[in-house]
Amino acid sequence: xxxxxxxxxxxxxxxxxxxxxxxxxLGSLLATGSAAGGELQVGFAEADITPDPKTQTVxxxxxxxxxxxxxxxxxxSVRVLVLSDGQRKLALxxxxxxxxxxxxxxxxxxQLPDFHYVMVSSTHNHEAPDVIGIWGxxxxxxxxxxxxxxxxxxxxxxxxxxxxxxxxxxxxFYGTAEAPSLVGDSRxxxxxxxxxxxxxxxxxxxxxLKGLLVQWNCHPEAMESKNxxxxxxxxxxxxxxxxQRYGVPVAYFTGAVGGLLSTPDKMVDAQGRTWPPGQWExxxxxxxxxxxxxxxxxxxxxxxxxxxxxxSARPVAVPMTNPRYHLARTLGVLRRPGRxxxxxxxxxxxxxxxxxxxxxxxxxxxxxxxxxLKLGKLWVACIPGELYPEMIYGQYQDPVExxxxxxxxxxxxxxxEIFGNRPFLFIGxxxxxxxxxxxxxxxxxxxxxxYGRSKPQYGEVNSVGPDxxxxxxxxxxxxxxxxxxxxxx
Length: 489
Ligand SMILES: [Zn+2]
Hints:
By secondary structure, the protein is of the alpha+beta class. It has helices spanning 102-110, 146-165, 234-246, 280-299, 323-331, 390-393, 415-419, 468-485; strands at 41-48, 71-72, 77-84, 89-95, 117-122, 168-178, 184-185, 195-203, 209-216, 229-230, 250-254, 261-262, 267-268, 274-275, 302-303, 309-319, 338-340, 351-352, 364-375, 378-382, 386-387, 424-427, 436-437. Helix content is 20%, strand content 24%. Zinc ion binds at residues 15, 17, 124, 219, 260, 386.
């Protein structure tokens, strides 16, 4: 049986967003605490992570298997900023790949022991090398080049060190701008996070611009499934347009894209010509439109205190019930270690090696991490997958659809509830990519189906299981509560 054939055929823009089986080290609280606010400093850096498809076989991730790269259209990068509050250093990084896995993030952290916290995320680019394993030559072939993972780890560490060296005292500004027309939701109920968020950093000494952080919520898959040239997709155009406009480094982060949140079905250029997805001009137009939205957010940005820093991060286990993921694990295309499920997401069970079988009566669980950061007055959610935007603002299906599998499941706490309506950034695919995180009340794989449909909607096939969403959001709530308890100084 082919993994591909398990995909709903009606979906044009499916991403095989993945799974994650967990890895490594027991972790209790990784880092917490706050300190008296010192001077805010920030540094930026970027590193090239483009492999050469002429000298090595590169399988492109996203969509089906067997998409071999034939060249490079534009470079892939990891973009980094390092922040200091005078006592603690934090690194925030984002790579132009489909979803760097938790074990790689741990490898990066190991080389940066002097950092209080290191967060490495991915843009979720569907036009870059496989870094998970499931997009090889066939569904039974592992698609990752282990040397490429090593290159990402090495270059990310180097970029973080470079960013650290160019840190300077700055003042921070936070801004937002909305554009519901720039993103579409292909699954009912329609729920979007249409808000682009920016942090603008200006040097204290002369008020000149130091760098920008941009967070937007859309799948980088504008070039779709036929493209065989490596590209950063629309994100590359967004970052380039902003760099040209402002002349400073730009770090781009992807927010809540589950559901799935993708680019519009057409873009119109200045001459009124219409461009469909899958074309470079469409991708460029979309990237530039996102940059224009960022400009709006930058123009309206207001000063925001970002010190002192406090971080609460902790590994969590998520029971894996998805049969496709179990099959992929058996086939050796998903090669992450995991845990035996204990019944408690925060009590990690014994480790299970990447290829170890799980005994009868036991259940395999993915180990991942959920973190909340409090940077002065700014909250940052670090969520290890593709969150359904319903869980940002609480746009749940109401009343509940009677045919869903768990109509009585409690509603997950939302990001806005958890952070109490304060300024926030939402970083998806943070430190991991475990696939879709659905509201449990909208889980629907058993007939009859919600909304009177004859087939299930797309989504659950790329989720660890129905408890992934609630486990992650309740973990975020606990992490934020821990930070609220820390006395402010
Ligand atoms: Zn996706």
